[in-house]
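Q: What does the assembly look like in three dimensions?
Context provided by user:
Components: two
Sequences:
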Amino acid sequence: NAGVTQTPKFQVLKTGQSMTLQCAQDMNHNSMYWYRQDPGMGLRLIYYSASEGTTDKGEVPNGYNVSRLNKREFSLRLESAAPSQTSVYFCASRGQKPKQDTQYFGPGTRLTVL
Amino acid sequence: AQKITQTQPGMFVQEKEAVTLDCTYDTSDPSYGLFWYKQPSSGEMIFLIYQGSYDQQNATEGRYSLNFQKARKSANLVISASQLGDSAMYFCAMSPLFGNEKLTFGTGTRLTIIP
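A: Here is the predicted structure of the complete assembly.
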């Protein structure tokens, strides 16, 4: 099993450009999450999806949109990138196997906005 | 609202010694989960250990154990017999167990193991 996968691993954008970060999980988990990690800080939740067809805002949702395409996939879109969105983005999923209540993370996407 | 506090920005430990990473939390939820994640220099987030607020015994996973003191609202990670590969950032996190599933992270502790 691949677990949680993310694409791309690295991306450089110019201010105002748009892009979509892709995330997929093969663990049949219901819940999926998008976090950002900035230097010297822990992870902060951007959006999450408790199940297919539902999404909710997290701590720092401004400037982002999400789509829960199906149970496996949860994408994060930046419509007009800003330098403040330079960060490392992690996708995660949560289920009851193998550890109940635990979130499992993808490898991350390092995004730089110039 | 939930809050995680990790007061040790960095620690240096001799190889083979035990190390304790501190974590205190605050929450109004009656049921919650506490987690520790390891982030090596390669950047991935690796799940280490989980403790439920309702668990009577402290969680253990190999060399990792969680010293859970509910009355003090602390959930310290203990690594026994440290290894060079343990050098990494360590994050404490928590989430309510019902309803809101969001993980709240601390700011992390950078652990360096000295040969």
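Follow-up: The two ends of chain A are 36 Å apart (CA to CA).
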